Amino acid sequence: MKNISATLATVWRIAGPYFRSEDKWAGRGLLAAVIAMELALVAVNVLLSQWQNRFFNALQAYELDNFVKEIWIFLVLATIYIALQVYKLYLNQWLQIRWRNWLTGRYLGEWLQGATHYRMQLKGDAADNPDQRITDDVRNFVEQTLSIGLGLLSSIVTLASFMVILWGLSNKAPLHLFGTDIVIPGFLLWSALAYAILGTALTHWVGAPLINLYFEQQRYEADFRFNLMRVRENSEQIALLKGEGAEREGLLRRFGSVIENWYAIMSRTKRLTTFTASYGQAAVIFPYVVVAPAYFAKSIQLGDMMQTGSAFGTVQDALSFFVTSYRTIAEWRSVVARLDGFEMSVNSAAHLAEHEPTIGLAPSASGTAIALEQLLVKLPNGKPLVSADAFAIRPSERVLVTGPSGSGKSTLFRAVAGIWPFGTGNIAVPGNAKLMMLPQRPYFPVGPLADAVVYPAARGMFPPEQIENALLAVGLPDLAERLNEDGHWNRMLSLGEQQRLGLARALLHAPDYLFLDEATASLDEPSEARLYRLLADKLPQATIVSIGHRSTLDAFHTRKVAMVEDGDVHVLSDERAKAEPSTAG
């Protein structure tokens, strides 16, 4: 019972905000309409149950007029029933897509807000494969919540309605044993209750392990799919290393977990289906066995007997809701658990500063320089990495940051960008300054080349002529003619071409502070020199901070900062470098 209460509380926490959102009136209206139609269908079923009694009594009495009359009544009831079913489904689907649209937008907004998605990866939270949570699990949550909720409501109302019918039929058809009528008020109702309660208890006992098995199945499937995607994205490196055999072995090992868990689901489902199928078939004949003695004793008519069988079956179905829906409920609870984990992971990453010390970001006091004050950058496990105090990067400087691999150069850049929270101290950035980070492997969204170059700016912010000029300037004349071509540019271009494309992006956005994290490392030295001269010429007012290992970069920077090991951390040590004249060409 405690687990059920916790699940329902989680469901309300996930579902409730939609019905209080800006789309609340449409959502509430559609839900009310669907519920009203569900209740109307129960009412029609009650009328059909009464019709069944009259219809079979007319057959038994050979009353043609009543028979024809009941046919016409049935046609009217059937028409109403069909219309209600059709529009209940239509409005249900309409509600599903509106609800899913809102919930997907909410999750995307929270996941992509303020680098939360990145912090979730750094923290190693349990919300694996967020893509599946936002696609499959949101869809399943909406569909199954409505299905189970409406099904439960229908079962409760149906039970209440047909309990009255069964109680009345119990008075007409008393328990008849050995030629004697035994009067037990509502004995048909008590028989249905006992039958359904026993079936529900046994079904839960047999099927309970399915909840965890479905949870694990989704996790194994997502893990397998994610690693297939990694092979596709890194196919060139795998081919160069001839790593197909190792990848195949790794993929089959992960798929082995899928198969093993599926066999466990098969075994448990077989047991559950064996019981539920047997239970369902027995329910077909059970009410007639109970009421048959009264019929053959001529205590009731054929119509009463048929109505009893139908009403008993309806009550039994209503009471057996958890039996027939157990597999769906098991899947639904695993979906709820995964979305709950995703929400907690997003919330934990978004409010990291509230739970542990983090690096503070604030507007610069001077308003012109980036200042590091008592900064200690740490790894996610708490190990110190970089220390800096009273360190400033002033406007229009050209700063080269060097140091051994693993000394924390890239991590320091991430801290300045505001996406690395682990550590203490403060980083002050000029309030209106525009920062841009270019990593060694830049990111380009799938789509038109023009959109990839100007990312993250909106389409149309830069005219095509300006984009073409930027591509020509960085040495990509062939791409200048392909601005409207769709493509997966991270796959289609070499790393050197991607780095040139990243610098074209920098020329377009013209940031105040440009951080280059080995952003030209895949280019030959003459090309690298030409591009640094281009940046100096096109962005003369920009502050450029580079991470690099080549000695040839010294000539393009006015200041050199080395990462020097000092005990357990690396500290920033200032050096000087002579700048080359800024001439493009």
From TrEMBL:
Annotated ABC transporter domain ranges read 370-584
MF terms in GO: ABC-type transporter activity; ATP binding; ATP hydrolysis activity
Q: What's the chief localization of this chain?
A: membrane
Which key words tag this protein in UniProt? ATP-binding, Membrane, Nucleotide-binding, Transmembrane, Transmembrane helix, Transport
The protein's topology relative to the membrane is: Multi-pass membrane protein
Q: InterPro entries this protein is in?
A: AAA+_ATPase, ABC1_TM_dom, ABC1_TM_sf, ABC_transporter-like_ATP-bd, ABC_transporter-like_CS, ABC_transporter_sub-D, P-loop_NTPase
Matching CDD domains, A to Z?
A: ABCD_peroxisomal_ALDP
GO cellular component labels:
plasma membrane
UniProt superkingdom: Bacteria
Task: List membrane-spanning regions.
Answer: 30-51, 71-90, 148-169, 189-215, 276-296
**Location(s) in or outside the cell:** Cell membrane
Q: Which family does it belong to?
A: Belongs to the ABC transporter superfamily.
Q: What does this protein do?
A: Involved in beta-(1-->2)glucan export. Transmembrane domains (TMD) form a pore in the inner membrane and the ATP-binding domain (NBD) is responsible for energy generation.
What PANTHER family does the database record attribute to this sequence? ATP-BINDING CASSETTE, SUB-FAMILY D MEMBER, LYSOSOMAL COBALAMIN TRANSPORTER ABCD4
| Name of the featured protein | ABC transporter ATP-binding protein/permease
* Organism, as annotated: Bradyrhizobium sp. LLZ17
